[in-house]
Amino acid sequence: MFQDAIALGYEEEIYEDLKNFGAPNVSIELPIHKTLTSRIYTLAYNEGISVVMATNALLNQYNTSLFLDHGAIVPLYFINKYYKGYKLVHITYAALSDIDLYKLGIEINRAVKELKEDAIFIASGDLSHKLKEEGPYGYNVSVEKCLNNFLIM
């Protein structure tokens, strides 16, 4: 969402579907875990990490709204087949320094422990953008090798 800040989704719920990807019957709607999201935000902010609470009021200023992207929908789709009744903390990546991203992970862990939450951390990245020359970022053989090694394991 932002180039210079980690965005934490902060509405009652978050929704999206895959109709733009030819699967209009696939949709996800989940409640946001606002207590945990708030705690992560506060801890990260106090550590000097560039974070923002992504509300629809804020995002409307940028002609967008809070939504799940396909990088989140796909793993959540499979999780929802077996597990329901959970709340989501939706964090959107920004190109911060490795140190700040590491510190954010520490603060996420701290917030989970402080609130005594059961939590699963799912990181999703779309490396497929680099698997074809005509893709948005061109072909990268290292990405293909990485994905092939991952799929073999």
TrEMBL record:
**Molecular function GO terms recorded:** ferrous iron binding; oxidoreductase activity, acting on single donors with incorporation of molecular oxygen, incorporation of two atoms of oxygen
Q: Which Pfam families match?
A: LigB (PF02900)
Q: Which SUPFAM superfamilies match?
A: LigB-like
Q: Where is the Extradiol ring-cleavage dioxygenase class III enzyme subunit B domain?
A: 2-147
Name it: Extradiol ring-cleavage dioxygenase class III enzyme subunit B domain-containing protein
